[in-house]
Amino acid sequence: MTVQTPLLVSGLKDIASQYSAVLCDVWGVLHNGVTAMPGAHEALTAFRQETGGKVVLITNAPRPAPEIRVQLARFGVTETAYDDIVTSGDVTQELLSAQVGKNLFHIGPQRDLPLYDGMGLTFSDEANADVVSCTGLFDDETETPDDYRERLADLVKRDVTMICANPDIVVERGDRLIWCAGALARLYEDLGGSVAILGKPHAPIYEAAKRRLETLNGAAVDPTKILAIGDGLPTDIRGAVSQDLDVLFITAGIHGADFGPLEAPQEDLIRRRLKEEGLRARAALPRLVW
User: Is the pTM of this model over 0.85?
Assistant: First the structure.
């Protein structure tokens, strides 16, 4: 009889020696949109100190990396936890730069406007838009994707392409789940619209992160020595698996209710869900700790 290797581990230290680099998700792993997750940034700090490995944070945030660095500090995540940051906003900027001269309609909160700084884009209302850039809902505290159905349908009828700068469907904010741009992009596609997405789970953000690791390391990093850490099955886990990277699945994030007690998930439920999704994980933890 084949003995199955346990999926649940006690902490990152149990597998850390097998890797020289980590690509770590941010929202749902390092913070919950309100404050830092206890033990998470300390775990990444310990990985860097104990193994000498590099850590690149890889996030579907639609804002450029410097904005995320400031946000992390505000939440109490120290810079000792990481070497660099790659955001969905970073990789989306190249696609947005190709829209110069077109009328662009932005869907999303004011806090995401730094995404467009210095790009020379022309903004318009939706009636005159040639392209839509979606970073989120205008008010993610009160709105839902269905509030946008009619206006998105009108844009689809005009064959306007949507550029989605944040593929996440939902994220945690404290003890609540908040709709993200990915939910609007999914609705746009369901209505028959064309959507361009470069963040997780898509390849461009991973390619950018690997290039960043190569710069930090001074040479290309063997993909078998890269560990991806995340909590989102359709984004973090699917993206890492598509890149053939090992995964540390953080179960108490957006899918926490699916695996039994939040702090004591049931391994059989985790394995079953991964199998149903056609995914895999090297290991699992309820929350990131060393």
Answer: yes
Nearest to 180 by CA among 138, 237, 213: 138
Q: Residue 84 pairs with which residues in a beta bridge?
A: 56
Burial class (CB in 10 A: 0-12, 13-18, 19+), 24: buried
| Residue among 13, 94, 20, 4 nearest 53 (CA) | 20
Report the chain (290 residues): mean pLDDT per 10 consecutive residues: 76 98 96 93 98 97 94 95 96 92 96 93 94 96 96 96 94 87 96 94 95 95 97 96 98 93 96 97 97
Per-residue pLDDT at 2: 45
Q: State residue 273's pLDDT score.
A: 96
For residue 238, give the nearest of 252, 228, 253 by alpha carbon. 228
Q: Which residues pair with 133 in a beta bridge?
A: 106, 163
Identify whether the C-beta of residue 248 lies closer than 8 Å to the C-beta of residue 281: yes
Q: Is 27 strand, coil or helix?
A: strand
Size (the chain), residues: 290
CATH number of 12-87+201-285: 3.40.50.1000
What is 90-197's CATH number, 3.40.190.10, 3.40.50.970, 3.40.50.1000, 3.40.50.720? 3.40.50.1000
Task: Kindly give, in sequence order, each residue whose CB lies less than 8 Å from that of residue 78, ignoring residues fewer than 6 positions away.
Answer: 41, 45
Q: Residue 175: what pLDDT?
A: 81
**Which residues partner with 230 through β-bridges?**
249
